[in-house]
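Customer ticket, subject: "Can you confirm the structure for Endonuclease/exonuclease/phosphatase domain-containing protein?"

Message body: Hello, I'm evaluating your service for our small team and ran a test protein. I'd like someone to confirm that this is what the system normally returns, since I don't have a reference to compare against.
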Amino acid sequence: MVSSSSRSSLVSTRQPKKNRTEETQANGKPLDRLIKVTNDARTPGYMKLVIDLMLEMKEEIQEANRRNKEQTDEVERLRNENLSLKSQLNALRTSNTLPISTSVSDSASLSSSNNDPDLKRSIVIRNLPEPQCTNSVEKVFHDLSAVTEILSCLDVECLPITTYRMGQESIPDAYELLICDIFINSKCIRFMVVYRVPGNTSGLNRLMKTISDFSICSNPCILLGDFNLPSLYSQGNLCESTNNSQTFLSLILTHGFQQLVTSPTRGNAYLDLLFCNDTFLIRNVQIGAPIGGSDHSTVIFDLNLLVLPEIFEYKRDFKNADYSAILEHLANIDWLGSFNMTNTVNEMYETFLAILHHVIELFFPIRKVKLAQLSLPKYLQRMLNHRTLLWKNAVLKQDANSWDKFKEANLRTEKAVNRYNVYLEKKLIESEDKTKFYSKPRHGANTMVP
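Agent reply: Thanks for trying us out. I re-ran your input and got the following:
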C-alpha cells in the first residue's frame, strides 16, 4: 500500500512538458539563447564552433533574402514594363502604323541564322500561295516562313537560307532585279543587281520602292547594274535633269549610296553604275573590255575585306621538356633545409608547390596553340540556329504554340546531335588510331558538339 501510494503521489505531482514555443518565450529569443550558450564556459569547444557557424549562416541567409527581394521587385517591375510595351506595340500594329519596320526587324532576326555561305542544294515548291501584302520585305519574310513550316511538317532536318519566288521581281518590259546576301570572311554583304529597260517609266516607282526596302539593313549594300539612265551621271556628278533621275537620286541620297564608276560604259554614256553605302568596302574600280558580243564595258572592282587573324593561346610544352636537366635540378635542391624553414604542413605544401612552379618556368618551353574553332556540319549549325530563333520567338510571344514549335525543334536537334556523336565515335573506332582513341576521353569535356 505504501509503495502504491508513493507511485500515486509521484504521478500526481509530475508537471506537464513544455513545448518548444513556450520554452523559447520563457527563456528569450533563440539568438539570445545561442549567445548565452556560447559565452557559457561549460559549453564544449566544438559546440561553440557550430553555433558560430550557425550565426554566420543566419546573417548570410538574411542578406541573401534581402537581395532576392530586391531582384524579385526588379523582375516584377520589368515584367510590368514589358507588358506595357507589348500592349503599345499591339496597338500600333492594329492601327497599321508599323508594317514596314516590323517586317524589317523580323527579317533581320532571321538573317542572323542564314550564315551558311556554301549553298549547294535547292528545292522548288509549287503552288505556294502568293502573299497578300504589298511590301517587298514582307513578301520575302512570308515565303521564308512558309517554306520553313513546310519543311518542319515534313520532318526535314534543314533550315532554308533564303527563298526566291520565280519572277517575283521581274516585270516584262520594265526591269529585272536580283538580290542576294553573300558571306565572306564572316562579313555579310548585300548585292542588288539591276537591269532597267531603256525608256520605261511605268515600273520605275516599284523598282525604287523594292530597292529602298532591301537597303534597310545593318549590312553594307552594293547596288550595281545597267540602269539606262544616261542623264543621272554626267561629268563626275549626279544630276537630276529628268523626272526619272530625280526619283533615283532621291533614293540614292536617302540610303547614303555613293556612285563609284568614273568612266563611260557605253560610248560616252554612263549606263552601268556602281553604288555602295560603305566607301571603304570597294576599291580599284576599273572599266574593262566587254564580254562576248555585249556593247557595254565591264565594271571591275575589288572588295576591301579584313582578313580575320588566327587566334592563339600559349601553353607549356611538357612533351619537349629536358627531363634530364629537370631531374638534376631537383636532385640538387636542399629539400630538408627548405622544409625545416616552415612551421606548418600548409607552409610546407606551399613551399613544395613554389619549387615545382619555379622548375616549370625554367625548363618547360612555351608553345603557341591555335584555338579550336566550331567544326559542326552545316546542317547541325542551321538546326542550332533555327532552335535559337524559335526560342527567342517563344520567349517574345509567350504562347503555347510557339513553345511547342521550340520543343519539337529542340528534340529534333538533340537527336541529330546524338546521331552525329555516334557517327564520330564509330569513325574513331574504325580508324584504329590509338592516339586519337585515347585522346578522346581526355578532351571529351571540350568537345565541339553541344
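A couple of notes from the result: The longest strand covers residues 175-184. The chain is about 50% helix and 15% strand. Feel free to reply with more questions.
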